[in-house]
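Example 5.3 — Histidine kinase
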Amino acid sequence: MTELEAIRARHAVRNYTTKPLPPAIIDGLKEEIGQCNRLGQLHIQLVTDNEGAFKSFIPLFGRFKNVKNYIALVAKMQGDFYVKSGYFGARLMIKAQQAGLNSCWVTSTYNAKKCQVTLAPDEELVGVIAIGYGMTDGRQHKSKSMERLCKPCSDKWFINGMKASVLAPTGLNKQNFFIEANGNTVSIHTKDNRPMSQIDTGIVKYHFEIGAGKENFNWG
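Solution (predicted structure tokens):
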């Protein structure tokens, strides 16, 4: 399964089976996490077989069941760390899909105090990605039309990038982003600069790159 195929196949899943993650998949995720940490100067961590962060926690938006495995997005609080967390989190979510796992991006509806992660004084737990074998494969969320999310552009690479961006998970599925191209320079804008919006920016950026091909454009 290619990354683009994984983007199309992935949907948010909140209910999981109790099937444990095989050692080979755990090793593959850890290797990918190591690469993301090096590239993004992050401290992302994989937590397996621990349900403390989701047990007996009733969120305001979406309930979870049998979440025992998750990717903890930890970053040093400097620069554009929210954007980087979203960007590399999206990469890891797609990697999990390629490995046959289901997933769900979670920024607030979990118990952060019970996450088994290592945090330095200058680091923040930005959010987690629940992973595992879902009770179902989920379903496609409702999306805004492409015309509402970008400035019209006839270039094929841009259209392909937008098709992937429309499928990106965003906070509360609001899709509060807008993308436009000036020649081969692409810019992405959000309605505000809150942490969730910055995280969404990173997620959408990664999706756009997979659809458009990084060799076809530059970020403005």
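Remark. The CA atoms of residues 77 and 123 lie 5 Å apart.
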